[in-house]
Write a structure and sequence with these properties.
The complex is a heterodimer of chains A (130) and B (234). Chain A has no helices and 13 strands. In chain A, the strands form 3 sheets. In chain A, strands 2, 3, 6, 7 and 13 form a 5-stranded antiparallel sheet that branches. In chain A, strands 5, 8, 9, 10 and 11 form a 5-stranded antiparallel sheet that branches. A two-stranded antiparallel sheet of chain A has the order 4-12. Chain A starts with a strand and ends with a strand. Chain B is mainly β. The chains are: A mainly beta (130), B mainly beta (234). Strand 7 of chain A pairs antiparallel with strand 14 of chain B.
Protein backbone atom coordinates (compact mmCIF):
# COMPACT_ATOMS: atom_id res chain seq x y z
CA UNK A 1 0.00 0.00 0.00
CA UNK A 2 1.45 3.30 -1.06
CA UNK A 3 0.05 6.79 -0.76
CA UNK A 4 0.39 8.01 -4.30
CA UNK A 5 -0.03 11.61 -3.23
CA UNK A 6 2.82 11.48 -0.75
CA UNK A 7 6.18 12.93 -1.85
CA UNK A 8 7.80 9.96 -0.16
CA UNK A 9 6.26 7.73 -2.81
CA UNK A 10 8.15 9.40 -5.63
CA UNK A 11 10.90 6.81 -5.86
CA UNK A 12 8.64 3.84 -5.56
CA UNK A 13 7.18 4.18 -9.04
CA UNK A 14 8.52 3.96 -12.50
CA UNK A 15 8.85 7.24 -14.25
CA UNK A 16 7.15 7.98 -17.53
CA UNK A 17 10.13 8.72 -19.68
CA UNK A 18 10.10 10.81 -22.81
CA UNK A 19 12.60 11.26 -25.56
CA UNK A 20 13.99 14.69 -26.08
CA UNK A 21 13.45 16.66 -29.25
CA UNK A 22 9.88 16.36 -30.39
CA UNK A 23 9.52 15.65 -34.10
CA UNK A 24 7.78 17.95 -36.56
CA UNK A 25 6.19 16.66 -39.75
CA UNK A 26 4.73 19.12 -42.25
CA UNK A 27 1.87 18.31 -44.59
CA UNK A 28 1.41 20.83 -47.38
CA UNK A 29 -2.04 21.36 -48.77
CA UNK A 30 -1.64 23.05 -52.16
CA UNK A 31 -3.91 25.67 -53.63
CA UNK A 32 -6.62 23.71 -55.34
CA UNK A 33 -10.14 23.99 -56.71
CA UNK A 34 -12.61 21.53 -55.24
CA UNK A 35 -15.71 20.61 -57.16
CA UNK A 36 -18.98 20.03 -55.27
CA UNK A 37 -18.69 17.23 -52.72
CA UNK A 38 -15.08 16.63 -53.69
CA UNK A 39 -12.72 15.46 -50.97
CA UNK A 40 -8.96 15.20 -51.17
CA UNK A 41 -6.37 13.88 -48.80
CA UNK A 42 -2.75 14.81 -48.33
CA UNK A 43 -0.23 13.02 -46.19
CA UNK A 44 3.31 12.78 -45.02
CA UNK A 45 5.22 10.56 -42.66
CA UNK A 46 8.60 10.54 -41.00
CA UNK A 47 10.62 7.91 -39.22
CA UNK A 48 10.68 8.30 -35.44
CA UNK A 49 11.98 4.95 -34.32
CA UNK A 50 11.99 4.26 -30.60
CA UNK A 51 9.88 1.15 -30.29
CA UNK A 52 8.01 0.58 -27.05
CA UNK A 53 6.78 4.12 -27.10
CA UNK A 54 3.48 5.90 -27.09
CA UNK A 55 2.90 9.39 -28.37
CA UNK A 56 1.21 12.68 -27.79
CA UNK A 57 0.59 14.52 -31.04
CA UNK A 58 -0.23 18.18 -31.59
CA UNK A 59 -1.03 19.89 -34.87
CA UNK A 60 -1.08 23.46 -36.12
CA UNK A 61 -3.10 23.98 -39.29
CA UNK A 62 -2.10 27.20 -41.02
CA UNK A 63 -2.66 30.23 -38.82
CA UNK A 64 -4.95 28.36 -36.43
CA UNK A 65 -3.90 27.45 -32.89
CA UNK A 66 -2.12 24.28 -31.96
CA UNK A 67 -4.46 21.49 -31.06
CA UNK A 68 -4.32 17.97 -29.79
CA UNK A 69 -4.62 15.21 -32.35
CA UNK A 70 -5.24 11.65 -31.28
CA UNK A 71 -5.59 9.33 -34.19
CA UNK A 72 -8.82 10.08 -35.96
CA UNK A 73 -10.06 12.62 -33.46
CA UNK A 74 -10.98 15.47 -35.71
CA UNK A 75 -13.68 14.30 -38.04
CA UNK A 76 -16.62 16.55 -38.64
CA UNK A 77 -15.52 19.25 -36.28
CA UNK A 78 -17.34 22.53 -36.86
CA UNK A 79 -14.19 24.36 -35.84
CA UNK A 80 -12.77 23.30 -39.14
CA UNK A 81 -15.76 24.28 -41.22
CA UNK A 82 -14.65 27.43 -42.98
CA UNK A 83 -17.79 28.17 -44.88
CA UNK A 84 -17.94 25.39 -47.40
CA UNK A 85 -14.43 24.11 -46.66
CA UNK A 86 -14.11 21.22 -44.25
CA UNK A 87 -10.77 20.10 -42.87
CA UNK A 88 -9.82 16.93 -41.02
CA UNK A 89 -6.59 16.19 -39.27
CA UNK A 90 -5.43 12.72 -38.46
CA UNK A 91 -2.14 11.44 -37.15
CA UNK A 92 -0.82 8.42 -35.39
CA UNK A 93 2.46 6.92 -34.37
CA UNK A 94 2.84 3.28 -35.38
CA UNK A 95 5.92 2.44 -33.39
CA UNK A 96 8.22 3.39 -36.23
CA UNK A 97 6.76 6.36 -38.12
CA UNK A 98 4.64 9.39 -37.46
CA UNK A 99 1.86 9.23 -40.06
CA UNK A 100 -0.03 12.43 -40.75
CA UNK A 101 -3.02 13.11 -42.95
CA UNK A 102 -4.92 16.26 -43.83
CA UNK A 103 -8.25 15.95 -45.57
CA UNK A 104 -10.12 18.79 -47.22
CA UNK A 105 -13.61 18.67 -48.57
CA UNK A 106 -16.14 20.89 -50.32
CA UNK A 107 -19.60 21.07 -48.77
CA UNK A 108 -20.80 23.71 -51.22
CA UNK A 109 -22.94 23.06 -54.31
CA UNK A 110 -20.43 25.07 -56.36
CA UNK A 111 -16.70 24.98 -56.86
CA UNK A 112 -14.49 26.48 -54.16
CA UNK A 113 -10.90 27.65 -54.38
CA UNK A 114 -8.73 26.60 -51.48
CA UNK A 115 -5.66 28.68 -50.71
CA UNK A 116 -2.75 26.40 -49.90
CA UNK A 117 -1.61 26.00 -46.31
CA UNK A 118 0.70 23.89 -44.22
CA UNK A 119 -0.19 21.75 -41.24
CA UNK A 120 2.58 21.10 -38.75
CA UNK A 121 2.25 17.90 -36.75
CA UNK A 122 4.41 17.72 -33.64
CA UNK A 123 4.86 14.48 -31.72
CA UNK A 124 6.57 13.68 -28.47
CA UNK A 125 7.36 10.06 -27.70
CA UNK A 126 7.10 8.59 -24.26
CA UNK A 127 8.88 5.43 -23.27
CA UNK A 128 6.39 2.84 -22.13
CA UNK A 129 7.39 0.01 -19.80
CA UNK A 130 6.14 -2.68 -22.14
CA UNK B 1 9.75 23.11 -28.11
CA UNK B 2 13.02 22.47 -26.37
CA UNK B 3 13.33 21.30 -22.86
CA UNK B 4 13.18 24.35 -20.66
CA UNK B 5 15.26 23.94 -17.50
CA UNK B 6 14.61 27.52 -16.44
CA UNK B 7 10.95 26.74 -16.07
CA UNK B 8 11.59 23.91 -13.67
CA UNK B 9 14.50 25.19 -11.67
CA UNK B 10 13.07 23.68 -8.50
CA UNK B 11 13.21 20.26 -10.10
CA UNK B 12 13.31 18.33 -6.87
CA UNK B 13 9.89 19.75 -6.05
CA UNK B 14 8.46 19.19 -9.50
CA UNK B 15 6.36 16.10 -9.83
CA UNK B 16 6.65 13.64 -12.69
CA UNK B 17 4.45 10.88 -14.01
CA UNK B 18 4.18 7.67 -12.07
CA UNK B 19 3.24 4.45 -13.78
CA UNK B 20 1.22 2.36 -11.39
CA UNK B 21 0.26 -0.66 -13.45
CA UNK B 22 0.77 -2.27 -16.85
CA UNK B 23 -1.66 -4.73 -18.41
CA UNK B 24 -1.42 -6.60 -21.69
CA UNK B 25 -3.00 -9.41 -23.65
CA UNK B 26 -4.35 -10.50 -26.99
CA UNK B 27 -7.75 -10.99 -28.59
CA UNK B 28 -9.05 -12.41 -31.86
CA UNK B 29 -10.76 -9.84 -34.06
CA UNK B 30 -12.87 -11.23 -36.89
CA UNK B 31 -13.10 -9.57 -40.27
CA UNK B 32 -15.77 -6.98 -40.82
CA UNK B 33 -18.80 -8.10 -38.87
CA UNK B 34 -20.41 -4.96 -37.55
CA UNK B 35 -20.07 -6.18 -33.98
CA UNK B 36 -17.30 -4.55 -31.96
CA UNK B 37 -14.97 -6.79 -30.00
CA UNK B 38 -14.93 -5.81 -26.33
CA UNK B 39 -12.12 -6.58 -23.88
CA UNK B 40 -12.76 -5.83 -20.21
CA UNK B 41 -9.72 -5.54 -17.95
CA UNK B 42 -10.11 -5.58 -14.20
CA UNK B 43 -7.55 -2.98 -13.19
CA UNK B 44 -8.51 -2.77 -9.51
CA UNK B 45 -7.79 0.93 -9.87
CA UNK B 46 -9.87 4.06 -9.60
CA UNK B 47 -10.09 5.69 -13.00
CA UNK B 48 -6.84 7.39 -13.81
CA UNK B 49 -4.68 8.56 -16.68
CA UNK B 50 -3.54 5.94 -19.14
CA UNK B 51 -1.84 5.35 -22.46
CA UNK B 52 -2.33 2.25 -24.53
CA UNK B 53 -1.27 0.80 -27.82
CA UNK B 54 -2.06 -2.17 -30.03
CA UNK B 55 -0.50 -4.33 -32.71
CA UNK B 56 -2.04 -6.43 -35.45
CA UNK B 57 1.21 -7.82 -36.86
CA UNK B 58 2.43 -9.85 -33.94
CA UNK B 59 4.18 -6.96 -32.25
CA UNK B 60 6.29 -5.82 -35.20
CA UNK B 61 4.57 -2.42 -35.21
CA UNK B 62 2.28 -0.71 -32.75
CA UNK B 63 -0.22 2.10 -32.87
CA UNK B 64 -1.64 4.17 -30.06
CA UNK B 65 -5.19 3.66 -28.88
CA UNK B 66 -7.52 6.12 -30.61
CA UNK B 67 -5.81 5.63 -33.91
CA UNK B 68 -6.86 3.39 -36.74
CA UNK B 69 -5.30 1.04 -39.22
CA UNK B 70 -6.44 0.62 -42.78
CA UNK B 71 -6.08 -2.70 -44.49
CA UNK B 72 -4.05 -2.15 -47.67
CA UNK B 73 -6.70 -4.13 -49.51
CA UNK B 74 -9.27 -1.56 -48.49
CA UNK B 75 -7.23 1.59 -48.67
CA UNK B 76 -9.29 3.13 -51.48
CA UNK B 77 -12.21 3.55 -49.12
CA UNK B 78 -10.11 4.33 -46.12
CA UNK B 79 -12.61 6.34 -44.12
CA UNK B 80 -15.01 3.45 -43.97
CA UNK B 81 -12.70 0.45 -44.06
CA UNK B 82 -10.50 0.53 -41.04
CA UNK B 83 -9.74 -0.88 -37.63
CA UNK B 84 -10.63 1.43 -34.75
CA UNK B 85 -9.28 0.75 -31.28
CA UNK B 86 -10.51 2.77 -28.31
CA UNK B 87 -9.76 2.45 -24.61
CA UNK B 88 -11.47 3.91 -21.56
CA UNK B 89 -12.50 3.30 -17.99
CA UNK B 90 -16.12 2.41 -17.35
CA UNK B 91 -17.38 4.90 -14.79
CA UNK B 92 -21.00 3.86 -14.43
CA UNK B 93 -21.08 0.56 -12.60
CA UNK B 94 -22.95 -1.78 -12.43
CA UNK B 95 -22.81 -1.82 -16.24
CA UNK B 96 -19.33 -3.12 -15.59
CA UNK B 97 -17.57 -3.51 -12.24
CA UNK B 98 -15.71 -0.53 -10.87
CA UNK B 99 -12.17 -0.42 -12.14
CA UNK B 100 -13.02 -1.94 -15.50
CA UNK B 101 -10.90 -0.69 -18.35
CA UNK B 102 -12.63 -1.46 -21.61
CA UNK B 103 -11.00 -1.82 -25.00
CA UNK B 104 -13.43 -1.46 -27.88
CA UNK B 105 -12.29 -2.77 -31.26
CA UNK B 106 -14.30 -2.10 -34.39
CA UNK B 107 -13.03 -3.82 -37.49
CA UNK B 108 -14.37 -2.68 -40.83
CA UNK B 109 -11.48 -4.20 -42.78
CA UNK B 110 -11.79 -7.40 -44.74
CA UNK B 111 -8.93 -9.01 -42.78
CA UNK B 112 -9.17 -10.72 -39.43
CA UNK B 113 -6.53 -10.04 -36.81
CA UNK B 114 -4.93 -11.27 -33.66
CA UNK B 115 -4.72 -8.01 -31.80
CA UNK B 116 -2.15 -7.46 -29.07
CA UNK B 117 -2.77 -4.69 -26.58
CA UNK B 118 -0.71 -3.04 -23.85
CA UNK B 119 -1.91 -0.39 -21.45
CA UNK B 120 -0.02 1.55 -18.82
CA UNK B 121 -1.89 3.33 -16.09
CA UNK B 122 -0.47 6.61 -14.84
CA UNK B 123 -1.31 8.11 -11.47
CA UNK B 124 -3.43 11.21 -11.40
CA UNK B 125 -3.76 13.35 -8.29
CA UNK B 126 -6.08 12.22 -5.58
CA UNK B 127 -5.69 8.48 -5.97
CA UNK B 128 -4.48 8.35 -2.41
CA UNK B 129 -3.44 5.01 -0.98
CA UNK B 130 -3.53 2.24 -3.52
CA UNK B 131 -2.15 -1.22 -4.05
CA UNK B 132 0.59 -1.42 -6.61
CA UNK B 133 2.20 -4.19 -8.53
CA UNK B 134 5.90 -4.89 -8.14
CA UNK B 135 7.85 -3.58 -11.08
CA UNK B 136 11.15 -4.56 -12.55
CA UNK B 137 11.80 -1.20 -14.07
CA UNK B 138 13.28 1.50 -11.96
CA UNK B 139 13.25 5.22 -12.03
CA UNK B 140 16.99 5.68 -11.90
CA UNK B 141 18.21 8.52 -14.05
CA UNK B 142 19.31 7.59 -17.55
CA UNK B 143 20.95 10.22 -19.70
CA UNK B 144 19.10 9.03 -22.78
CA UNK B 145 15.77 9.88 -21.25
CA UNK B 146 14.05 12.83 -19.78
CA UNK B 147 11.38 12.47 -17.17
CA UNK B 148 8.61 14.84 -18.18
CA UNK B 149 7.78 17.29 -15.43
CA UNK B 150 4.22 18.04 -14.58
CA UNK B 151 3.46 21.73 -14.73
CA UNK B 152 -0.22 21.62 -13.86
CA UNK B 153 -2.96 19.13 -13.06
CA UNK B 154 -6.48 20.42 -13.41
CA UNK B 155 -9.73 18.68 -12.57
CA UNK B 156 -12.81 20.73 -13.31
CA UNK B 157 -16.46 19.66 -13.21
CA UNK B 158 -18.62 21.44 -15.76
CA UNK B 159 -22.25 21.41 -16.84
CA UNK B 160 -23.18 22.49 -20.35
CA UNK B 161 -26.79 23.42 -21.11
CA UNK B 162 -28.50 21.69 -24.00
CA UNK B 163 -27.91 23.30 -27.38
CA UNK B 164 -24.75 25.03 -26.23
CA UNK B 165 -21.08 24.81 -27.12
CA UNK B 166 -18.94 25.76 -24.16
CA UNK B 167 -15.25 26.47 -23.72
CA UNK B 168 -13.25 26.07 -20.54
CA UNK B 169 -9.90 27.84 -20.27
CA UNK B 170 -7.02 26.35 -18.34
CA UNK B 171 -4.26 28.83 -17.75
CA UNK B 172 -0.62 27.74 -17.82
CA UNK B 173 1.42 30.84 -18.78
CA UNK B 174 4.38 28.71 -19.80
CA UNK B 175 5.12 30.99 -22.73
CA UNK B 176 5.30 28.11 -25.19
CA UNK B 177 3.18 25.26 -26.50
CA UNK B 178 3.14 22.42 -23.96
CA UNK B 179 2.26 18.82 -24.51
CA UNK B 180 -0.85 17.79 -22.64
CA UNK B 181 -2.97 14.81 -21.68
CA UNK B 182 -6.70 15.60 -21.44
CA UNK B 183 -9.18 13.09 -20.06
CA UNK B 184 -12.93 13.47 -19.82
CA UNK B 185 -15.34 11.75 -17.45
CA UNK B 186 -18.76 11.76 -19.04
CA UNK B 187 -20.41 9.80 -16.27
CA UNK B 188 -20.25 6.73 -18.48
CA UNK B 189 -16.62 6.64 -19.48
CA UNK B 190 -13.30 8.11 -18.50
CA UNK B 191 -11.51 8.58 -21.75
CA UNK B 192 -8.81 10.48 -23.50
CA UNK B 193 -10.62 13.49 -24.88
CA UNK B 194 -11.75 12.85 -28.41
CA UNK B 195 -14.87 13.57 -30.36
CA UNK B 196 -15.47 9.87 -30.75
CA UNK B 197 -16.75 9.13 -27.29
CA UNK B 198 -19.81 10.67 -25.70
CA UNK B 199 -19.02 14.25 -26.52
CA UNK B 200 -17.47 16.26 -29.26
CA UNK B 201 -14.35 17.68 -27.69
CA UNK B 202 -11.78 20.05 -29.12
CA UNK B 203 -8.60 21.06 -27.35
CA UNK B 204 -6.54 23.98 -28.59
CA UNK B 205 -3.31 25.20 -27.08
CA UNK B 206 -1.54 28.54 -27.09
CA UNK B 207 1.38 29.90 -25.16
CA UNK B 208 -0.77 30.89 -22.18
CA UNK B 209 -3.84 28.69 -22.15
CA UNK B 210 -5.35 25.37 -23.02
CA UNK B 211 -8.89 25.93 -24.28
CA UNK B 212 -11.16 22.93 -24.16
CA UNK B 213 -14.41 23.22 -26.08
CA UNK B 214 -17.20 20.69 -25.79
CA UNK B 215 -20.36 20.69 -27.84
CA UNK B 216 -23.73 19.87 -26.36
CA UNK B 217 -25.43 21.40 -29.35
CA UNK B 218 -27.04 18.15 -30.39
CA UNK B 219 -28.93 17.67 -27.13
CA UNK B 220 -31.84 19.35 -25.40
CA UNK B 221 -30.67 18.29 -21.95
CA UNK B 222 -27.80 19.50 -19.77
CA UNK B 223 -24.61 17.45 -19.90
CA UNK B 224 -22.15 17.17 -17.01
CA UNK B 225 -18.50 16.27 -17.32
CA UNK B 226 -15.32 16.31 -15.33
CA UNK B 227 -12.34 17.54 -17.29
CA UNK B 228 -8.94 16.29 -16.13
CA UNK B 229 -5.97 17.95 -17.76
CA UNK B 230 -2.27 17.31 -17.24
CA UNK B 231 0.06 19.93 -18.69
CA UNK B 232 3.75 19.11 -19.04
CA UNK B 233 6.78 21.32 -18.77
CA UNK B 234 8.61 19.27 -21.39
Amino acid sequence: MIDIDSPAAANKFSGFKNFRDPLDVVVTVPSVTLTPSEYRGYGNSAAMGNANSVSIILAKPGVLPWRLVNGFVIFNTPHYDFGPLQIWLSAFYDGANLNCTVGIGNQDPGNINVTGFDVVFRAQLYQAPF
Amino acid sequence: MPFNPAAIAASSKTDSDKIIKVMSGSVAVPSVSGVPVVVNLDTALPFTYFKGRYSVDGGATWADFFSFKVDPVDVINSLQDRLDVLGYFITNPPTEPAGTFQILISNFNSSSYTLLYEVMFIAKPGLGVIDTEPTDYGSAYQSGFNYPKIAFDYSVPITIPGGVRQSTTFNHNLGRIPFILPFINSGNRYSLATDTIDAYSEVTIDTNDVIWTISNEGNFFDASYTLDLRIYHD
